Amino acid sequence: MTSDQAPIRLAELALKHQLPTIFSVGDYADADGLFAYGPDPKDGMRRAAIYVDRILKGAKPSELPIERPTKFELVINLKTARALRLKIQHSLLIRADKVIE
């Protein structure tokens, strides 16, 4: 199994055994996981580019501050929720960054 197949297989097994899941990466929700909540990968890449820019301009990596993520992403898979016979409250759905029908 390749690393790009792991999210699909893990979500399949959880769904087969009627286990609700929450992951930190949106790809798992895309692969039929129930929820994903974690740092926004696009924002992380943007922040990494800023670090690279600073290093290329002469900053020492050891002197750069460690930054925590500031932007998070919530993905909800309603198809999986229906398969698990779960009702997701509307208040949660409107807060989601992405809802998979």
Structure summary:
It contains 5 helices and 4 strands. It has helices at 6-16, 26-30, 41-56, 78-83, 90-93; strands spanning 22-23, 35-39, 72-77, 98-100.
What can you tell me about this protein's structure?
This protein has 101 residues and is an alpha/beta fold. 42% of the residues lie in helices and 16% in strands. Strands 1-2-3-4 form a 4-stranded mixed sheet.
Separation, N- and C-terminal Cα atoms: 27 Å
User: What value does the Rg take, in angstroms?
Assistant: 17 Å
Instruction: List unreliable stretches of 5+ residues.
Output: none
Structural class: alpha/beta
- Per DSSP, what share of the residues sits in E-state strands of 2 or more residues? 15-25%
Helix segment tally: 5
Largest sheet: 4 strands, mixed
Percent in helix: 40-55%
Please give the number of β-strands.
Answer: 4
Strand order of the largest sheet: 1-2-3-4
| Arithmetic mean of pLDDT | 90
What is the H/E order? HEHEHEHHE
Count up the domains: 1
Instruction: Assign an overall shape.
Output: elongated
